[in-house]
Protein backbone atom coordinates (compact mmCIF):
# COMPACT_ATOMS: atom_id res chain seq x y z
CA UNK A 1 0.00 0.00 0.00
CA UNK A 2 1.22 3.44 -0.91
CA UNK A 3 -0.19 6.46 0.85
CA UNK A 4 -2.38 8.57 -1.42
CA UNK A 5 -3.18 12.29 -1.32
CA UNK A 6 -6.44 11.37 0.43
CA UNK A 7 -4.51 9.60 3.22
CA UNK A 8 -2.17 12.54 3.64
CA UNK A 9 -5.17 14.90 3.69
CA UNK A 10 -6.78 12.96 6.58
CA UNK A 11 -3.54 13.06 8.56
CA UNK A 12 -3.06 16.76 7.86
CA UNK A 13 -6.64 17.50 8.94
CA UNK A 14 -6.03 15.82 12.27
CA UNK A 15 -2.75 17.65 12.87
CA UNK A 16 -4.39 20.96 11.98
CA UNK A 17 -7.22 20.24 14.42
CA UNK A 18 -4.78 19.69 17.29
CA UNK A 19 -3.11 23.02 16.59
CA UNK A 20 -6.48 24.79 16.45
CA UNK A 21 -7.50 23.26 19.78
CA UNK A 22 -4.21 24.34 21.35
CA UNK A 23 -4.73 27.89 20.15
CA UNK A 24 -8.40 27.84 21.22
CA UNK A 25 -7.72 26.89 24.86
CA UNK A 26 -4.42 28.72 25.20
CA UNK A 27 -5.84 31.73 27.05
CA UNK A 28 -7.80 29.61 29.53
CA UNK A 29 -4.84 27.28 30.07
CA UNK A 30 -2.47 30.17 30.83
CA UNK A 31 -4.72 31.64 33.54
CA UNK A 32 -2.75 29.98 36.37
CA UNK A 33 -0.97 26.70 37.18
CA UNK A 34 -4.19 25.04 38.33
CA UNK A 35 -5.74 25.74 34.92
CA UNK A 36 -2.60 24.77 33.00
CA UNK A 37 -1.95 21.45 34.75
CA UNK A 38 -5.45 20.40 35.93
CA UNK A 39 -7.89 22.28 33.70
CA UNK A 40 -9.10 24.27 36.69
CA UNK A 41 -10.71 21.09 38.10
CA UNK A 42 -13.84 21.87 36.09
CA UNK A 43 -13.85 18.96 33.61
CA UNK A 44 -16.52 16.25 34.07
CA UNK A 45 -15.26 12.79 34.91
CA UNK A 46 -16.39 11.05 31.65
CA UNK A 47 -14.23 13.49 29.65
CA UNK A 48 -11.23 12.86 31.89
CA UNK A 49 -11.82 9.10 31.73
CA UNK A 50 -11.93 9.05 27.93
CA UNK A 51 -8.86 11.29 27.90
CA UNK A 52 -7.03 8.94 30.25
CA UNK A 53 -8.03 5.94 28.13
CA UNK A 54 -6.85 7.79 25.05
CA UNK A 55 -3.50 8.49 26.65
CA UNK A 56 -3.11 4.79 27.42
CA UNK A 57 -3.94 3.93 23.78
CA UNK A 58 -0.39 4.88 22.87
CA UNK A 59 1.31 3.87 19.65
CA UNK A 60 4.34 2.17 21.21
CA UNK A 61 2.13 0.14 23.54
CA UNK A 62 -0.22 -0.84 20.72
CA UNK A 63 2.70 -2.00 18.58
CA UNK A 64 3.93 -4.03 21.54
CA UNK A 65 0.48 -5.56 22.19
CA UNK A 66 0.03 -6.56 18.56
CA UNK A 67 3.42 -8.28 18.62
CA UNK A 68 2.49 -10.07 21.86
CA UNK A 69 -0.90 -11.12 20.49
CA UNK A 70 0.68 -12.45 17.31
CA UNK A 71 3.34 -14.46 19.15
CA UNK A 72 1.53 -15.59 22.32
CA UNK A 73 -2.15 -15.54 21.33
CA UNK A 74 -4.65 -15.54 24.22
CA UNK A 75 -1.80 -15.97 26.69
CA UNK A 76 -0.73 -12.44 25.82
CA UNK A 77 -3.63 -11.10 27.93
CA UNK A 78 -1.50 -11.71 31.05
CA UNK A 79 1.69 -10.01 29.91
CA UNK A 80 0.41 -6.41 30.31
CA UNK A 81 0.30 -7.17 34.04
CA UNK A 82 3.90 -5.97 33.74
CA UNK A 83 2.55 -2.37 33.78
CA UNK A 84 0.47 -3.51 35.77
CA UNK A 85 -2.77 -2.75 33.90
CA UNK A 86 -4.84 -3.68 36.94
CA UNK A 87 -3.51 -0.66 38.84
CA UNK A 88 -6.65 1.04 37.45
CA UNK A 89 -8.73 -1.38 39.54
CA UNK A 90 -6.97 -0.36 42.77
CA UNK A 91 -7.48 3.27 41.81
CA UNK A 92 -11.15 2.68 41.08
CA UNK A 93 -11.86 0.85 44.33
CA UNK A 94 -10.21 3.21 46.81
CA UNK A 95 -6.91 4.91 45.94
CA UNK A 96 -8.30 7.59 43.60
CA UNK A 97 -10.60 8.78 46.38
CA UNK A 98 -7.78 8.80 48.92
CA UNK A 99 -5.57 10.79 46.57
CA UNK A 100 -8.22 13.28 45.44
CA UNK A 101 -9.19 14.18 49.03
CA UNK A 102 -5.84 15.98 49.34
CA UNK A 103 -6.80 18.72 46.82
CA UNK A 104 -3.17 19.22 45.75
CA UNK A 105 -1.70 20.05 42.33
CA UNK A 106 0.93 17.26 42.00
CA UNK A 107 2.07 14.03 43.61
CA UNK A 108 5.10 15.77 45.06
CA UNK A 109 2.93 18.43 46.67
CA UNK A 110 0.82 15.61 48.16
CA UNK A 111 3.88 14.54 50.20
CA UNK A 112 3.37 17.57 52.45
CA UNK A 113 -0.10 16.36 53.43
CA UNK A 114 1.42 13.06 54.62
CA UNK A 115 4.77 14.08 56.12
CA UNK A 116 4.39 17.79 56.83
CA UNK A 117 7.31 20.19 56.41
CA UNK A 118 10.10 18.53 58.39
CA UNK A 119 13.61 18.05 56.93
CA UNK A 120 12.66 14.44 56.12
CA UNK A 121 9.49 15.62 54.40
CA UNK A 122 11.47 18.07 52.27
CA UNK A 123 13.88 15.29 51.26
CA UNK A 124 10.88 13.10 50.41
CA UNK A 125 9.43 15.93 48.35
CA UNK A 126 12.65 16.20 46.33
CA UNK A 127 12.85 12.41 45.85
CA UNK A 128 9.35 12.36 44.33
CA UNK A 129 10.35 15.15 41.95
CA UNK A 130 13.40 13.11 40.92
CA UNK A 131 11.30 10.00 40.37
CA UNK A 132 8.70 11.95 38.40
CA UNK A 133 11.31 13.40 36.06
CA UNK A 134 13.00 10.01 35.51
CA UNK A 135 9.59 8.47 34.82
CA UNK A 136 8.61 11.23 32.40
CA UNK A 137 11.91 11.01 30.52
CA UNK A 138 11.57 7.22 30.34
CA UNK A 139 8.05 7.36 28.91
CA UNK A 140 8.97 10.11 26.45
CA UNK A 141 11.88 7.97 25.25
CA UNK A 142 9.51 4.99 24.94
CA UNK A 143 7.10 7.02 22.81
CA UNK A 144 9.91 8.55 20.76
CA UNK A 145 11.25 5.12 19.76
CA UNK A 146 7.77 3.78 18.95
CA UNK A 147 6.60 6.62 16.70
CA UNK A 148 9.83 6.53 14.71
CA UNK A 149 9.64 2.78 14.05
CA UNK A 150 5.97 3.14 13.09
CA UNK A 151 6.39 5.98 10.59
CA UNK A 152 9.46 4.40 8.97
CA UNK A 153 7.29 1.60 7.56
CA UNK A 154 5.00 4.04 5.72
CA UNK A 155 7.52 6.63 4.61
CA UNK A 156 10.71 4.86 3.49
CA UNK A 157 13.83 6.93 3.95
CA UNK A 158 14.66 6.89 0.26
CA UNK A 159 11.55 9.05 -0.30
CA UNK A 160 12.77 11.68 2.18
CA UNK A 161 16.54 11.48 1.66
CA UNK A 162 16.70 13.74 -1.44
CA UNK A 163 15.18 16.57 0.62
CA UNK A 164 17.28 15.99 3.76
CA UNK A 165 20.71 17.63 3.90
CA UNK A 166 22.32 15.05 6.22
CA UNK A 167 23.27 11.42 5.68
CA UNK A 168 21.40 9.11 8.06
CA UNK A 169 22.33 5.47 8.63
CA UNK A 170 19.39 3.00 8.44
CA UNK A 171 19.47 2.27 12.19
CA UNK A 172 18.77 5.93 13.00
CA UNK A 173 16.01 6.61 10.48
CA UNK A 174 13.28 5.98 13.12
CA UNK A 175 14.92 8.54 15.38
CA UNK A 176 14.72 11.24 12.72
CA UNK A 177 11.00 10.64 12.33
CA UNK A 178 10.68 10.54 16.11
CA UNK A 179 12.25 13.99 16.40
CA UNK A 180 9.85 15.41 13.83
CA UNK A 181 6.67 14.26 15.60
CA UNK A 182 7.91 15.02 19.10
CA UNK A 183 8.56 18.58 17.94
CA UNK A 184 4.96 18.92 16.70
CA UNK A 185 3.51 17.40 19.87
CA UNK A 186 5.67 19.57 22.12
CA UNK A 187 4.46 22.74 20.42
CA UNK A 188 0.83 21.70 20.79
CA UNK A 189 0.97 20.72 24.48
CA UNK A 190 2.85 23.88 25.41
CA UNK A 191 -0.07 25.91 24.10
CA UNK A 192 -3.03 24.09 25.62
CA UNK A 193 -1.92 22.44 28.86
CA UNK A 194 -4.41 19.98 30.38
CA UNK A 195 -7.41 21.50 28.57
CA UNK A 196 -5.75 21.04 25.20
CA UNK A 197 -4.74 17.48 26.11
CA UNK A 198 -8.27 16.46 27.13
CA UNK A 199 -10.11 17.98 24.14
CA UNK A 200 -7.62 16.52 21.67
CA UNK A 201 -7.83 13.15 23.42
CA UNK A 202 -11.58 13.03 22.83
CA UNK A 203 -11.09 13.43 19.08
CA UNK A 204 -8.32 10.85 19.15
CA UNK A 205 -10.44 8.30 21.01
CA UNK A 206 -13.29 8.73 18.52
CA UNK A 207 -10.86 8.13 15.64
CA UNK A 208 -9.34 5.07 17.31
CA UNK A 209 -12.75 3.57 18.13
CA UNK A 210 -13.79 3.90 14.49
CA UNK A 211 -10.50 2.40 13.33
CA UNK A 212 -10.74 -0.49 15.82
CA UNK A 213 -14.25 -1.44 14.67
CA UNK A 214 -13.18 -1.32 11.02
CA UNK A 215 -10.15 -3.55 11.51
CA UNK A 216 -12.01 -5.96 13.79
CA UNK A 217 -14.82 -6.44 11.27
CA UNK A 218 -12.33 -6.70 8.39
CA UNK A 219 -10.42 -9.44 10.21
CA UNK A 220 -13.60 -11.41 10.88
CA UNK A 221 -14.60 -11.15 7.21
CA UNK A 222 -11.21 -12.21 5.83
CA UNK A 223 -10.33 -15.05 8.23
CA UNK A 224 -11.95 -18.16 9.64
CA UNK A 225 -11.27 -20.27 12.74
CA UNK A 226 -10.06 -23.29 10.78
CA UNK A 227 -7.37 -21.31 8.93
CA UNK A 228 -6.18 -19.66 12.12
CA UNK A 229 -6.05 -22.99 13.98
CA UNK A 230 -3.99 -24.55 11.18
CA UNK A 231 -1.34 -21.82 11.39
CA UNK A 232 -0.95 -21.22 15.13
CA UNK A 233 0.60 -23.56 17.73
CA UNK A 234 -1.48 -25.76 20.01
CA UNK A 235 -2.57 -23.64 22.98
CA UNK A 236 -2.40 -20.31 21.13
CA UNK A 237 -6.17 -19.73 21.40
CA UNK A 238 -6.36 -20.58 25.12
CA UNK A 239 -5.61 -18.11 27.94
CA UNK A 240 -4.71 -20.93 30.33
CA UNK A 241 -1.10 -21.91 30.99
CA UNK A 242 1.13 -24.14 33.08
CA UNK A 243 4.64 -23.86 34.39
CA UNK A 244 6.11 -23.53 30.89
CA UNK A 245 4.79 -21.65 27.87
CA UNK A 246 4.83 -24.64 25.48
CA UNK A 247 4.15 -22.71 22.29
CA UNK A 248 6.03 -24.05 19.27
CA UNK A 249 5.53 -22.31 15.95
CA UNK A 250 5.99 -24.41 12.79
CA UNK A 251 6.54 -24.07 9.03
CA UNK A 252 6.92 -20.54 7.66
CA UNK A 253 6.23 -19.01 11.08
CA UNK A 254 8.90 -21.05 12.89
CA UNK A 255 11.04 -17.92 13.09
CA UNK A 256 8.62 -16.66 15.76
CA UNK A 257 10.23 -19.13 18.18
CA UNK A 258 13.30 -16.92 18.11
CA UNK A 259 11.20 -14.05 19.41
CA UNK A 260 9.92 -16.21 22.29
CA UNK A 261 13.49 -17.17 23.20
CA UNK A 262 14.69 -13.57 23.13
CA UNK A 263 11.75 -12.36 25.26
CA UNK A 264 12.59 -14.82 28.02
CA UNK A 265 8.96 -15.87 28.55
CA UNK A 266 9.47 -19.65 28.39
CA UNK A 267 8.83 -20.13 32.13
CA UNK A 268 5.44 -18.54 31.78
CA UNK A 269 3.90 -19.67 35.07
CA UNK A 270 6.76 -18.17 37.06
CA UNK A 271 6.65 -15.03 34.95
CA UNK A 272 2.92 -14.44 35.60
CA UNK A 273 3.40 -15.12 39.31
CA UNK A 274 6.16 -12.51 39.45
CA UNK A 275 4.03 -10.02 37.50
CA UNK A 276 1.10 -10.53 39.90
CA UNK A 277 3.33 -10.19 42.97
CA UNK A 278 4.97 -7.03 41.67
CA UNK A 279 1.73 -5.71 40.25
CA UNK A 280 -0.21 -5.91 43.52
CA UNK A 281 2.54 -4.07 45.39
CA UNK A 282 2.98 -1.41 42.73
CA UNK A 283 -0.79 -0.94 42.46
CA UNK A 284 -1.20 -0.68 46.24
CA UNK A 285 1.45 2.07 46.18
CA UNK A 286 -0.90 4.31 44.22
CA UNK A 287 -0.35 6.01 40.87
CA UNK A 288 3.13 7.06 39.85
CA UNK A 289 3.62 10.83 39.49
CA UNK A 290 2.66 11.07 35.83
CA UNK A 291 -0.33 12.00 33.67
CA UNK A 292 -2.54 9.33 35.30
CA UNK A 293 -2.12 10.99 38.69
CA UNK A 294 -2.73 14.41 37.16
CA UNK A 295 -6.06 13.23 35.68
CA UNK A 296 -7.15 12.00 39.12
CA UNK A 297 -6.22 15.32 40.74
CA UNK A 298 -8.09 17.15 37.96
CA UNK A 299 -11.47 15.59 38.85
CA UNK A 300 -14.11 17.61 40.68
CA UNK A 301 -14.54 15.30 43.71
CA UNK A 302 -13.26 12.02 45.24
CA UNK A 303 -16.36 10.21 43.95
CA UNK A 304 -15.72 11.42 40.40
CA UNK A 305 -12.06 10.39 40.75
CA UNK A 306 -13.16 6.80 41.48
CA UNK A 307 -15.67 6.79 38.63
CA UNK A 308 -13.10 8.21 36.23
CA UNK A 309 -10.56 5.49 37.06
CA UNK A 310 -13.12 2.70 36.84
CA UNK A 311 -14.53 3.80 33.49
CA UNK A 312 -11.05 3.77 31.90
CA UNK A 313 -10.92 -0.04 31.74
CA UNK A 314 -14.52 -0.32 30.49
CA UNK A 315 -13.91 1.91 27.46
CA UNK A 316 -10.24 1.13 26.77
CA UNK A 317 -9.90 -2.65 26.93
CA UNK A 318 -12.61 -3.78 24.47
CA UNK A 319 -11.80 -1.11 21.87
CA UNK A 320 -8.04 -1.48 22.04
CA UNK A 321 -8.06 -5.27 21.94
CA UNK A 322 -10.58 -5.37 19.10
CA UNK A 323 -7.93 -3.59 17.03
CA UNK A 324 -5.08 -5.70 18.44
CA UNK A 325 -6.88 -8.97 17.74
CA UNK A 326 -7.87 -7.87 14.24
CA UNK A 327 -4.33 -7.06 13.22
CA UNK A 328 -2.99 -10.24 14.86
CA UNK A 329 -5.19 -12.66 12.93
CA UNK A 330 -4.72 -10.78 9.67
CA UNK A 331 -0.96 -10.91 10.17
CA UNK A 332 -1.04 -14.63 10.94
CA UNK A 333 -3.24 -15.63 8.02
CA UNK A 334 -1.46 -13.33 5.52
CA UNK A 335 2.05 -13.43 6.95
CA UNK A 336 3.66 -13.76 3.54
CA UNK A 337 2.23 -10.35 2.56
CA UNK A 338 3.96 -8.55 5.41
CA UNK A 339 7.31 -6.85 4.99
CA UNK A 340 8.86 -6.90 8.46
CA UNK A 341 12.39 -6.16 7.32
CA UNK A 342 13.45 -2.66 8.33
CA UNK A 343 17.00 -1.47 7.79
CA UNK A 344 17.95 -4.93 6.55
CA UNK A 345 16.75 -6.84 9.67
CA UNK A 346 13.58 -8.67 10.68
CA UNK A 347 11.66 -6.83 13.42
CA UNK A 348 8.42 -8.34 14.74
CA UNK A 349 7.65 -5.08 16.56
CA UNK A 350 6.73 -3.75 13.12
CA UNK A 351 3.77 -6.13 12.67
CA UNK A 352 1.26 -3.36 13.35
CA UNK A 353 2.48 -0.82 10.77
CA UNK A 354 3.19 -3.59 8.26
CA UNK A 355 -0.35 -4.95 8.71
CA UNK A 356 -1.84 -1.50 8.21
CA UNK A 357 0.22 -1.13 5.08
CA UNK A 358 -0.90 -4.52 3.76
CA UNK A 359 -4.58 -4.69 4.72
CA UNK A 360 -6.06 -1.22 5.21
CA UNK A 361 -7.60 0.40 2.13
CA UNK A 362 -6.90 3.88 0.80
CA UNK A 363 -8.56 6.65 2.78
CA UNK A 364 -9.10 4.36 5.75
CA UNK A 365 -5.31 4.08 5.96
CA UNK A 366 -5.15 7.81 6.50
CA UNK A 367 -7.70 7.46 9.30
CA UNK A 368 -5.63 4.72 10.94
CA UNK A 369 -2.43 6.67 10.66
CA UNK A 370 -4.07 9.82 11.97
CA UNK A 371 -5.47 7.85 14.90
CA UNK A 372 -2.19 6.16 15.77
CA UNK A 373 -0.23 9.38 15.37
CA UNK A 374 -2.88 10.94 17.59
CA UNK A 375 -2.34 8.12 20.09
CA UNK A 376 1.34 8.94 20.20
CA UNK A 377 0.69 12.65 20.53
CA UNK A 378 -1.94 12.09 23.24
CA UNK A 379 0.40 10.07 25.46
CA UNK A 380 3.37 12.25 24.68
CA UNK A 381 1.45 15.47 25.33
CA UNK A 382 -0.02 14.26 28.63
CA UNK A 383 3.44 13.15 29.78
CA UNK A 384 5.05 16.42 28.77
CA UNK A 385 2.28 18.25 30.62
CA UNK A 386 3.16 16.32 33.81
CA UNK A 387 6.89 17.15 33.80
CA UNK A 388 6.82 20.92 34.36
CA UNK A 389 4.14 20.46 37.03
CA UNK A 390 6.83 18.96 39.24
CA UNK A 391 9.79 21.10 38.32
CA UNK A 392 7.91 24.41 38.17
CA UNK A 393 5.32 24.01 40.93
CA UNK A 394 7.28 21.80 43.33
CA UNK A 395 10.84 22.99 42.78
CA UNK A 396 10.95 26.44 41.18
CA UNK A 397 7.94 28.00 42.89
CA UNK A 398 8.55 26.39 46.28
CA UNK A 399 12.33 26.71 46.68
CA UNK A 400 13.57 29.29 44.15
CA UNK A 401 10.93 31.94 43.44
CA UNK A 402 7.86 31.65 45.70
CA UNK A 403 6.54 35.03 44.54
CA UNK A 404 6.72 34.29 40.81
CA UNK A 405 3.81 35.63 38.78
CA UNK A 406 1.51 33.33 36.83
CA UNK A 407 3.00 34.61 33.60
CA UNK A 408 6.53 33.74 34.73
CA UNK A 409 5.40 30.30 35.92
CA UNK A 410 3.73 29.52 32.60
CA UNK A 411 6.85 30.58 30.68
CA UNK A 412 8.95 28.44 33.03
CA UNK A 413 6.62 25.53 32.16
CA UNK A 414 7.32 26.09 28.46
CA UNK A 415 11.08 26.00 29.10
CA UNK A 416 10.90 22.81 31.19
CA UNK A 417 8.75 21.09 28.55
CA UNK A 418 11.37 21.79 25.91
CA UNK A 419 14.20 20.64 28.16
CA UNK A 420 12.71 17.24 29.02
CA UNK A 421 11.79 16.60 25.38
CA UNK A 422 15.34 17.36 24.23
CA UNK A 423 16.80 15.12 26.94
CA UNK A 424 14.46 12.20 26.25
CA UNK A 425 15.11 12.51 22.51
CA UNK A 426 18.85 12.39 23.10
CA UNK A 427 18.48 9.22 25.18
CA UNK A 428 16.19 7.74 22.53
CA UNK A 429 18.99 8.00 19.95
CA UNK A 430 20.71 5.11 21.75
CA UNK A 431 17.61 2.90 22.09
CA UNK A 432 16.41 0.55 19.36
CA UNK A 433 13.82 -1.64 21.17
CA UNK A 434 10.44 -0.62 22.55
CA UNK A 435 10.45 -3.64 24.87
CA UNK A 436 13.80 -2.74 26.48
CA UNK A 437 12.54 0.70 27.53
CA UNK A 438 9.23 -0.77 28.69
CA UNK A 439 10.87 -3.40 30.88
CA UNK A 440 13.14 -0.87 32.60
CA UNK A 441 10.18 1.41 33.28
CA UNK A 442 7.65 -1.09 34.61
CA UNK A 443 9.97 -3.60 36.31
CA UNK A 444 12.93 -1.43 37.30
CA UNK A 445 11.97 2.16 37.97
CA UNK A 446 8.43 1.43 39.20
CA UNK A 447 9.78 -1.47 41.22
CA UNK A 448 11.97 0.99 43.10
CA UNK A 449 8.90 3.13 43.70
CA UNK A 450 6.84 0.36 45.31
CA UNK A 451 8.12 -0.13 48.87
CA UNK A 452 8.13 3.48 50.06
CA UNK A 453 4.81 4.30 48.43
CA UNK A 454 3.02 1.26 49.85
CA UNK A 455 4.15 2.13 53.36
CA UNK A 456 3.10 5.79 53.11
CA UNK A 457 -0.59 4.83 52.86
CA UNK A 458 -0.87 2.02 55.37
CA UNK A 459 1.60 2.50 58.27
CA UNK A 460 1.48 5.48 60.63
CA UNK A 461 5.08 5.08 61.86
CA UNK A 462 6.51 5.49 58.37
CA UNK A 463 8.04 8.98 58.24
CA UNK A 464 9.57 11.41 55.74
CA UNK A 465 13.11 10.17 56.38
CA UNK A 466 12.04 6.60 55.66
CA UNK A 467 10.25 7.64 52.50
CA UNK A 468 13.34 9.45 51.24
CA UNK A 469 15.59 6.49 52.05
CA UNK A 470 13.21 4.03 50.35
CA UNK A 471 12.77 6.15 47.24
CA UNK A 472 16.45 6.99 46.86
CA UNK A 473 17.60 3.40 47.33
CA UNK A 474 14.86 2.18 44.97
CA UNK A 475 15.84 4.63 42.23
CA UNK A 476 19.54 3.81 42.61
CA UNK A 477 18.85 0.08 42.51
CA UNK A 478 16.66 0.48 39.41
CA UNK A 479 19.50 2.34 37.68
CA UNK A 480 22.33 0.00 38.72
CA UNK A 481 20.96 -3.53 39.22
CA UNK A 482 20.75 -4.47 35.50
CA UNK A 483 24.43 -3.63 35.01
CA UNK A 484 25.50 -5.32 38.27
CA UNK A 485 23.53 -8.55 37.95
CA UNK A 486 23.25 -8.93 34.20
CA UNK A 487 26.67 -10.64 33.87
CA UNK A 488 25.79 -12.98 36.78
CA UNK A 489 22.55 -14.10 35.08
CA UNK A 490 23.60 -14.70 31.46
CA UNK A 491 20.67 -17.05 30.75
CA UNK A 492 18.05 -14.40 31.58
CA UNK A 493 16.98 -12.21 28.66
CA UNK A 494 18.17 -8.63 29.15
CA UNK A 495 14.68 -7.24 28.54
CA UNK A 496 13.09 -9.37 31.29
CA UNK A 497 15.97 -9.06 33.77
CA UNK A 498 14.45 -6.11 35.72
CA UNK A 499 11.35 -8.20 36.52
CA UNK A 500 13.43 -11.08 37.90
CA UNK A 501 15.40 -8.62 40.03
CA UNK A 502 12.25 -7.04 41.47
CA UNK A 503 12.21 -9.07 44.75
CA UNK A 504 15.79 -8.01 45.51
CA UNK A 505 15.05 -4.40 44.62
CA UNK A 506 11.96 -4.48 46.83
CA UNK A 507 13.90 -6.00 49.74
CA UNK A 508 16.67 -3.40 49.58
CA UNK A 509 14.38 -0.36 49.21
CA UNK A 510 11.88 -1.72 51.76
CA UNK A 511 14.59 -2.40 54.35
CA UNK A 512 16.04 1.07 53.84
CA UNK A 513 12.59 2.63 54.30
CA UNK A 514 11.61 0.68 57.43
CA UNK A 515 14.97 0.84 59.22
CA UNK A 516 15.37 4.57 58.59
CA UNK A 517 11.84 5.23 59.87
CA UNK A 518 12.45 3.28 63.07
CA UNK A 519 15.81 4.97 63.70
CA UNK A 520 14.35 8.49 63.36
CA UNK A 521 11.57 10.36 65.12
CA UNK A 522 7.93 9.93 64.05
CA UNK A 523 6.33 12.71 62.07
CA UNK A 524 4.44 15.48 63.80
CA UNK A 525 1.22 14.05 65.37
CA UNK A 526 -0.87 16.99 64.14
CA UNK A 527 0.20 16.28 60.55
CA UNK A 528 -0.60 12.58 60.92
CA UNK A 529 -3.98 13.26 62.53
CA UNK A 530 -4.95 15.72 59.78
CA UNK A 531 -3.90 13.23 57.09
CA UNK A 532 -5.71 10.33 58.76
CA UNK A 533 -8.88 12.33 59.34
CA UNK A 534 -9.06 13.81 55.81
CA UNK A 535 -7.86 10.86 53.70
CA UNK A 536 -9.36 8.13 55.94
CA UNK A 537 -7.07 5.23 54.98
CA UNK A 538 -7.30 1.78 56.46
CA UNK A 539 -4.16 -0.01 57.60
CA UNK A 540 -1.86 0.12 60.62
CA UNK A 541 -3.00 3.46 62.05
CA UNK A 542 -3.96 2.39 65.58
CA UNK A 543 -2.13 5.09 67.64
CA UNK A 544 -3.25 7.86 65.28
CA UNK A 545 -6.80 6.53 65.25
CA UNK A 546 -6.93 6.80 69.06
CA UNK A 547 -5.56 10.36 68.98
CA UNK A 548 -8.03 11.34 66.26
CA UNK A 549 -11.04 9.97 68.13
CA UNK A 550 -9.87 11.67 71.32
CA UNK A 551 -10.05 15.00 69.49
CA UNK A 552 -13.12 14.14 67.44
CA UNK A 553 -15.33 11.52 69.13
CA UNK A 554 -17.63 11.42 66.09
CA UNK A 555 -14.85 10.26 63.77
CA UNK A 556 -15.46 6.84 62.19
CA UNK A 557 -12.42 4.86 61.12
CA UNK A 558 -12.31 3.15 57.75
CA UNK A 559 -13.31 -0.52 58.14
CA UNK A 560 -13.65 -1.26 54.41
CA UNK A 561 -10.40 -3.23 53.96
CA UNK A 562 -12.15 -6.57 53.38
CA UNK A 563 -14.73 -5.09 51.02
CA UNK A 564 -12.06 -3.17 49.08
CA UNK A 565 -9.86 -6.24 48.61
CA UNK A 566 -12.90 -8.25 47.44
CA UNK A 567 -13.74 -5.51 44.95
CA UNK A 568 -10.13 -5.41 43.73
CA UNK A 569 -10.23 -9.16 43.04
CA UNK A 570 -13.57 -8.92 41.22
CA UNK A 571 -12.34 -5.87 39.30
CA UNK A 572 -9.19 -7.65 38.10
CA UNK A 573 -11.27 -10.59 36.87
CA UNK A 574 -13.64 -8.22 35.05
CA UNK A 575 -10.82 -6.23 33.48
CA UNK A 576 -9.02 -9.36 32.27
CA UNK A 577 -12.27 -10.71 30.83
CA UNK A 578 -12.77 -7.42 28.95
CA UNK A 579 -9.33 -7.96 27.41
CA UNK A 580 -10.11 -11.54 26.34
CA UNK A 581 -13.65 -10.85 25.07
CA UNK A 582 -12.82 -8.94 21.83
CA UNK A 583 -10.09 -11.46 20.99
CA UNK A 584 -12.56 -14.34 21.30
CA UNK A 585 -15.01 -12.37 19.14
CA UNK A 586 -12.47 -11.81 16.36
CA UNK A 587 -11.28 -15.44 16.27
CA UNK A 588 -14.97 -16.54 16.42
CA UNK A 589 -14.77 -18.73 19.54
CA UNK A 590 -18.52 -18.69 20.22
CA UNK A 591 -18.48 -20.70 23.45
CA UNK A 592 -15.65 -18.60 24.90
CA UNK A 593 -17.50 -15.39 23.93
CA UNK A 594 -20.64 -16.55 25.75
CA UNK A 595 -18.74 -17.69 28.85
CA UNK A 596 -16.76 -14.45 29.01
CA UNK A 597 -19.91 -12.34 28.66
CA UNK A 598 -21.52 -14.23 31.55
CA UNK A 599 -18.39 -13.67 33.66
CA UNK A 600 -18.30 -9.93 32.86
CA UNK A 601 -22.01 -9.57 33.66
CA UNK A 602 -21.60 -11.29 37.03
CA UNK A 603 -18.60 -9.12 37.89
CA UNK A 604 -20.40 -5.90 36.96
CA UNK A 605 -23.51 -6.88 38.93
CA UNK A 606 -21.35 -7.61 41.97
CA UNK A 607 -19.42 -4.35 41.71
CA UNK A 608 -22.69 -2.42 41.38
CA UNK A 609 -23.66 -3.55 44.87
CA UNK A 610 -20.28 -3.75 46.61
CA UNK A 611 -18.52 -0.75 45.02
CA UNK A 612 -20.72 1.73 43.14
CA UNK A 613 -23.54 1.80 45.69
CA UNK A 614 -21.03 2.46 48.50
CA UNK A 615 -19.24 5.45 46.93
CA UNK A 616 -19.38 8.65 48.94
CA UNK A 617 -21.70 11.40 47.71
Automatic annotation (TrEMBL):
CDD domains: SLC5sbd_u1. It is found in: Cell membrane. This is Na+:solute symporter. The keyword Disulfide bond does not apply. The chain crosses the membrane at residues 6-25, 45-72, 78-99, 128-151, 171-190, 202-220, 265-285, 306-332, 367-391, 411-431, 437-455, 467-485, 497-519, 565-584, 590-607. It comes from Acanthopleuribacter pedis. It is a multi-pass membrane protein. The lineage of its organism: Bacteria, Pseudomonadati, Acidobacteriota, Holophagae, Acanthopleuribacterales. One of its GO terms (cellular component) is plasma membrane. Its main location: membrane. PROSITE patterns: NA_SOLUT_SYMP_3 (PS50283). The keyword Cell membrane applies. GO terms for molecular function: L-proline transmembrane transporter activity; proline:sodium symporter activity. Belongs to the sodium:solute symporter (SSF) (TC 2.A.21) family. It comes from the Bacteria. Keywords: Cell membrane, Ion transport, Membrane, Sodium, Sodium transport, Symport, Transmembrane, Transmembrane helix, Transport. One of its GO terms (biological process) is proline transport. InterPro entries: Na/Glc_symporter_sf, Na/solute_symporter, Sodium:Solute_Symporter.
Amino acid sequence: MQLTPLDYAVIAAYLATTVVIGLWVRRRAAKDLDSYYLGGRTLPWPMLSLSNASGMFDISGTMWLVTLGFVYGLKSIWIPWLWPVFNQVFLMVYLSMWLRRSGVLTGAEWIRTRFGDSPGARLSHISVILFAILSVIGFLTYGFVGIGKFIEVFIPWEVVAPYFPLTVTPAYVPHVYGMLFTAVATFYVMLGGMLGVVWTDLIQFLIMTTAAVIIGVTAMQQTDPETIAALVPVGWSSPFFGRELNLNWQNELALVNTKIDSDGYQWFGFLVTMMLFKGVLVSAAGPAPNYDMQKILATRSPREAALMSGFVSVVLMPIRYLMVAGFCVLAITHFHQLDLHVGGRLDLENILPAAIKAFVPTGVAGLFLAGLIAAFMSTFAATVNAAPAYLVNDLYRRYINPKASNRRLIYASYAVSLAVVVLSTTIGLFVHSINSVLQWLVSGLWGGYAAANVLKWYWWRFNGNGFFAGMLSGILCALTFPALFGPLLPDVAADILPLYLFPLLLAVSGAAAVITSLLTQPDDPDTLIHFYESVRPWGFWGPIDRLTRARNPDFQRNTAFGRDMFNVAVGIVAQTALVALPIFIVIKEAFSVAATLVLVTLCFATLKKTWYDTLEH
